[in-house]
Design goal:
Rossmann fold; about 350 residues; about 35% helix; 15 strands; alpha/beta
Length: about 350
């Protein structure tokens, strides 16, 4: 990837900047502006160099959502004069966006001189504004995209040991490649969240109404791996497991204390159903660790924003990824379609 620092002259140029401001909105207001804040260093750099910026983002899945709450929040926190930054329409309003349509890419390219991708969290999508558009303009990576690649690469390059990988959440089918890869790379792999239910079921435990996958995924073979650590107790609600228990937290704490590198993706319980306690406690333990700590996954990041300083907060971790699916894909494959398109 070529960095925006390599652009020789930005004065008077119009930059099409792909960001991911697909943020949660409630009652017409932005609930979490983490992704917006993360894009500001790139935006401020481009403005300082004399560029005008057209921000391209999506909001929601179908493109019908208004960008107005996002625009309002952006100008409130950035203190940037509106003339220097304008917002393009919700890009998913155009049917060609999700089809990686060259015709839409050509039309977009006519609006600017340079393309910059600073949307790591959507770079796993083969969409027009991520993959097709860079073919029609000189293309560069923004600071957040560079930071994501640099920091997440520590999971498979220049890794410190002992290396603890904590994997939670659901969607076993998407996380299976990750689990198999890091059972080879890490020293310890703790599996929590709904993913742990599949392992327990394979071991013969009655998981009641708990969420489980529809396939076996070769779990029995994985159970033989000595690096695999599973919860030993749980919190149940209405016959379903919603969180890991106190003894499991203690177990995990012992691994956190001896780890020099901790990578974590996905919550350890169903926090929307009251199963957030273990995740919050483990976040505090990881935040207080002397290890290099990398947190990825939208749901885990959402809980970080609710932590109270000095026990937590984003700055207590070495790096917090803006990605959900993109983080998973990058960790599994070492690249993404949006990164390849920069070449």
């Amino acid at each position: 990837m070529r960095s925006i620092k390599q652009i020789k002259n930005l004065k008077g140029k119009t930059v099409l900047l792909r960001v991911d401001f697909n943020v949660p909105i409630k009652g017409g207001k932005v609930e979490d502006d983490f992704r917006i804040i993360k894009a500001l260093p790139t935006i401020n750099f481009l403005i300082k160099k004399g560029a005008k910026i057209i921000l391209i983002t999506h909001l929601g899945k179908d493109g019908t959502a208004s960008l107005q709450p996002v625009i309002k929040r952006f100008f409130a926190i950035s203190k940037i004069a509106p003339g220097k930054v304008t917002f393009f329409e919700n890009i998913r309003k155009f049917p060609g966006e999700m089809k990686n349509d060259p015709a839409l890419a050509k039309k977009l390219s006519a609006l600017g001189d340079i393309y910059v991708n600073d949307a790591f969290s959507v770079s796993h999508r083969e969409h027009t504004s991520v993959v097709a558009l860079p073919k029609y303009l000189p293309s560069y990576a923004g600071f957040q995209l560079e930071e994501e690649v640099e920091n997440l690469s520590h999971a498979f390059k220049k890794t410190k040991h002992p290396f603890l990988f904590i994997l939670g959440g659901a969607k076993f089918s998407t996380k299976m490649p990750l689990l198999k890869k890091y059972l080879k790379l890490a020293d310890y792999v703790f599996v929590g969240g709904a993913l742990a239910n599949d392992f327990l079921k394979a071991k013969g435990y009655d998981v009641g109404k708990s969420l489980v996958g529809e396939d076996s995924y070769g779990i029995r073979e994985l159970l033989k791996n000595k690096k695999l650590i599973l919860p030993v107790d749980f919190v149940k609600k209405d016959g379903a497991i919603i969180d890991i228990g106190k003894n499991s937290i203690k177990d995990l704490e012992s691994y956190i204390k001896k780890a020099k590198f901790i990578l974590w993706n996905g919550p350890l319980g169903r926090y929307e159903d009251g199963g957030a306690e273990a995740t919050k406690k483990i976040l505090k333990l990881v935040a207080g660790s002397k290890a290099e700590t990398i947190i990825g996954g939208g749901d885990t990041v959402a809980l970080i924003s609710k932590m109270n300083p000095p026990a937590g907060g984003e700055k207590k971790f070495s790096f917090v990824s803006t990605g959900g699916g993109a983080t998973l894909d990058f960790l599994a494959n070492g690249t993404l379609p949006g990164i390849k398109a920069q070449g």
